[in-house]
Design goal:
The chain is of the alpha/beta class. Helix content is 37%, strand content 20%.
């Protein structure tokens, strides 16, 4: 979906820089990495998402006369630059990890190789897309894991930070493991299940709760979930729901229905509701819990033995309320001159902001015995990996070393664009979600803990480490 004026979805400094590159005749091939520095919520892993929208953006990026008129009004840029923009087309290469891949800090998610003007233009849009969807996919994955096998539905559209956040946040939630979404446009656009039944307003609009339940059951007998907390869950909602089940659904032989709790002490109420439903002969009736849930509250409810079959999660998922910034960055790592790559590095007093230079790849090592991931190694693009043992080491504490054996290796990034042409077949959202579930299953449970997760090994190859160290030693701050 191409949005209005998305070609100007850039920070203004991208316009000033690209005009400067143009005026100074500086348009050599540049290499940029997209990566993030820390997992949200102090988690152990993240889920990459948003690549399909990045592809769409790159394919549709062009400038029109209206854009040029606006830029001309700034009285900063040359007419020759405007002519360049009117003929703009991305001609470079892009590599990326497939959507749904488990990723970790400081490893390239996307790598762009292109003339520096073209590459610089992509920065903001790529970060907007990848940061948002990766954030929501990661948050959803945490919530789904906390639910411990119970379905999680994304119910957050009304609390999302704008239209695009609702649509693509719901998309990202499906990648993270949600089983459906309340956002109808997302369900339609990406062919995923739409979820949702009634709000309290439906019940309030009738003269009685019983009439509201009865009307709904008559209209949707095969998809009936009754919201039972509008007035009094145990004294009103539950008895009326059971009455409607008795009068409308049971005579039709229908057993697939549910009740939803959206307020109160959910653990206590769910137990009372379960007991009453069982006593009424409705042991197959499901209980869905909603109301400002997140992974921590869900984990607590399950620990309290709440009687719950599914969860609907809204605002805390769609906004990642507890940690709403993914923090991905777009950094120059190399410039090509005379066919050779000259590494570039960002140096900072904050050591965590020092970048890894040059054109790189990420290799994931898996145990042949268990198929679990052992470690990721960021290495130079032309490096190869021996089958006979590979030593990894901690970049900051180099005495921490380990030799990996009996492994197989997967290069995480795939080539997406070549010379400006898309060469990657975009999977369906369902396929991405299935792939992500499979990829996450290769990560040790200790890394996936909600609290105090085990840190996963992400190390540099010796060749990359030596290159980085040499540059740092030669660069005096």
């Amino acid at each position: 979906m191409k949005e209005e004026d998305i070609e100007l979805l850039t920070d203004f400094y991208e316009i000033t820089m690209t005009n400067g590159y143009f005026e100074k005749n500086k348009n050599e091939i540049a290499y940029f990495d997209v990566f993030f520095r820390k997992v949200p919520d102090r988690g152990g892993y993240a889920i990459a998402a948003g690549l399909e929208q990045v592809i769409d953006y790159v394919q549709n990026l062009k400038f029109n006369e209206e854009d040029i008129e606006y830029l001309r009004s700034q009285n900063l840029f040359s007419e020759d630059y405007f002519k360049y923009l009117l003929n703009f087309k991305f001609t470079g290469d892009i590599w990326a990890v497939p959507e749904g891949t488990v990723v970790f800090p400081n490893e390239p998610i996307i790598t762009v190789k292109a003339p520096v003007i073209e590459a610089q233009f992509l920065e903001t849009a790529i970060l907007v897309i990848i940061n948002h969807q990766s954030l929501i996919a990661t948050k959803t994955s945490r919530i789904v894991r906390a639910a411990n096998g119970r379905p999680v539905m994304e119910f957050g559209a009304r609390r999302a930070h704008g239209v695009s956040a609702a649509i693509y946040g719901a998309r990202a939630a499906m990648i993270g493991g949600a089983c459906g979404t309340s956002c109808t446009v997302t369900a339609k656009k990406f062919n995923v299940p739409a979820s949702g039944t009634m709000a309290h307003s439906w019940i309030q609009s009738f003269d009685s709760e019983y009439e509201a339940f009865k009307a709904y059951a008559e209209l949707y007998p095969n998809n009936c979930t009754l919201l039972i907390d509008t007035y009094d869950t145990l004294k009103s909602g539950l008895p009326n729901a059971i009455r409607v089940f008795d009068e409308v659904l049971k005579p039709k032989g229908i057993e697939n229905f549910a009740v939803r709790l959206d307020s109160g002490d959910l653990a206590y109420l769910s137990k009372k509701v379960r007991e009453a439903l069982d006593n009424a002969g409705y042991k197959n009736c499901k209980i869905c819990l909603t109301n400002s849930l997140d992974e921590y509250l869900i984990n607590s409810l399950i620990a309290q033995n709440a009687q719950v079959d599914s969860f609907g999660v809204g605002e805390n998922l769609i906004t990642s309320k507890s940690d709403p910034v993914f923090g991905g960055v777009y950094k120059l790592v190399g410039i090509e001159k005379d066919g050779k790559i000259e590494p570039r590095i960002k140096i900072s007093d904050n050591t965590e902001k020092i970048t890894n230079p040059s054109f790189k790849k990420v290799c994931r090592f898996y145990s042949k015995d268990t198929n679990y991931a052992l470690a990721d190694v960021v290495m130079l693009k032309d490096e190869t990996v021996s089958d006979e043992g590979y030593e990894i080491f901690d970049e900051h504490n180099t005495w921490k070393r380990k030799v990996l054996t009996n492994y197989y290796v997967r290069e995480l990034q795939e080539k997406i664009f070549e010379n400006g042409k898309l060469i990657y077949k975009t999977p369906t959202l369902k396929e991405i979600a299935e792939y992500s579930k499979k990829d996450l299953s290769t990560i040790w449970d200790e890394v996936k803990r909600l609290n105090n997760p085990q840190k996963y090994y992400v190390d540099l190859s010796k060749k990359l480490y030596d290159l980085k160290t040499d540059i740092l030693n030669r660069t005096k701050m």
